[in-house]
């Protein structure tokens, strides 16, 4: 249990609760949920520029990371087709993957197909079901994809000034503006309370909020004097109690709750807002293809990790369809901006390619 790990190392309840947020981030789980300790480990494994467990902002925004990967690929001769929706995987008479068909009717032939779409989209939508074992299909259908996350992107006309450390007169970013700011995390009981509300179909009345201001380090993201604020919040259920939809009224009501909380820590925040974009779990699924809005393509619980990700006997990136590989967050070792699943899948695919 996460609580036991944190109690062993720390005494301060606000510190324990703040660390606990990385154990439940993206997960419909409480700090008291068995297995939550692994999710914390998952978020601090690896290193950045030689610093273990470190995280950083991508200069130019997260899209710049995708562009860097794209440039590296095209430099090696890859052809990238954006805005081309894949309709299904093409199979030969022997059941081997032979490429993909696009929605416009174009067929792209290849010896191997790697998918970084979710296991649900890859195997339940893009692959002919008759080519897959029934128990495998059932397993993919049963993957727990519940997500508590609502992402809110905010444009503000001035830097938030927090009561704990007010801004200086010149309005320049202070050290804490360049870090991840955790709100409503004074105690782990608050996280558990927020989780309980979410499991009953109610958006948290005091949500867990992780606030970042990337423009404090990367001024090019916003006009002079203005900033972009990224809010990673939970717990918001995919399905609201009573079957109520996540309509504009529900979205704005939840966002108002989040902003009211931030206002308590940083008076004047609400008045500084000049625009906001609210992405609830159904929005994250619709826009980005995340099943249930889950940023990891499936819960990072112990029953869905290691040899069981995405399904027992298929954790090695190969699928029941020869020549079709899974290389996204739904594959081992799971989500996060680390590229491990893609790197591992590429090595397996290259090994197989040599024998074709």
From TrEMBL:
GO CC, alphabetical: mitochondrial matrix
Keywords from the UniProt entry: FAD, Flavoprotein
SUPFAM superfamilies: FAD/NAD(P)-binding domain
Molecular function in Gene Ontology: oxidoreductase activity
Subcellular location, record wording: Mitochondrion matrix
Keyword Flavoprotein found: yes
Highest taxon listed in the record's lineage: Eukaryota
InterPro entries (UniProt xref): Amino_oxidase, FAD/NAD-bd_sf
Oligomeric form and interacting partners: Interacts with COX5B; this interaction may contribute to localize PYROXD2 to the inner face of the inner mitochondrial membrane.
Function: Probable oxidoreductase that may play a role as regulator of mitochondrial function.
Family affiliation: Belongs to the carotenoid/retinoid oxidoreductase family.
Protein name as it appears in the record: Pyridine nucleotide-disulfide oxidoreductase domain-containing protein 2
Lineage, broadest ranks: Eukaryota, Metazoa, Chordata, Craniata, Vertebrata
Designated gene of the protein: Pyroxd2
